[in-house]
Automatic annotation (TrEMBL):
Protein name as it appears in the record: Tetratricopeptide repeat protein
PANTHER family: PROTEIN HIGH CHLOROPHYLL FLUORESCENT 107 (PTHR44917)
Classification of source organism: Eukaryota, Viridiplantae, Chlorophyta, core chlorophytes, Chlorophyceae
GO BP term, pick one: mRNA processing
GO molecular function: mRNA binding; single-stranded RNA binding
Length: 188
């Protein structure tokens, strides 16, 4: 004769005991009770996050920016805040969805939110640096500093420093730094 599951779960053999020897209210799961497999749960979660990401991209492609923002918000603020490619895609969408100075502001806001959550994400730092580079020479110092920082975090990103526009920005920033250092030493 089989023992009912409830009785098995609350039997003295499966109860936690307090220091006084009294049974606590929370039963220990019986050994035969199967728990969900963590690796499968992780796989399901990744698959769900990928579906959310794909749908956000699809909404953005169809210029349904408000809906895409909602999906990116759900994905990145509720489900997986460490999904770097989604932060970058969201920032690129904002740059495309807006005009004038607002396009850069919205793009920057998204990347800053991502960096607030993931301060050591080389991917997000690189994206922020490339955004600064695209904004023009007035933003090149920030761009160069960010791109050099992303490479110091992840050396595999070093090829970005060899891109033509990045090399030009580094030369310009380097010559400005040398001029400023010379001016400071002359004033001393």
């Amino acid at each position: 004769m089989r023992t009912p599951l409830l009785k098995t779960l609350t039997s003295p053999a499966t109860m936690l005991l307090s220091t006084s020897g009294r049974a606590l209210a929370m039963p220990i799961l019986a050994k035969h009770k199967a728990l969900p497999r963590v690796d499968r749960w992780g796989t399901e979660r990744r698959e769900n996050n990928q579906r959310l990401y794909d749908s956000a991209l699809e909404y953005a492609r169809r210029n349904r920016f408000k809906t895409a923002r909602s999906v990116f918000n759900k994905l990145l603020l509720e489900e997986d805040p460490h999904m770097c490619c989604a932060w970058v895609s969201w920032a690129q969408m904002e740059k495309r969805a807006n005009t004038g100075p607002e396009r850069w502001d919205r793009c920057r806001e998204v990347l800053q939110r991502g960096l607030t959550i993931n301060p050591k994400s080389a991917c997000l730092i690189q994206a922020f640096g490339l955004m600064c580079l695209q904004r023009g020479p007035g933003h090149w110092l920030a761009a160069v500093m960010l791109l050099e920082r992303c490479v110091s975090i992840d050396p595999r990103l070093e090829p970005v420093l060899n891109w033509a526009q990045v090399s030009e920005a580094r030369k310009t920033v380097g010559s400005r730094r040398r001029r400023n250092a010379g001016a400071l030493s002359n004033n001393s």
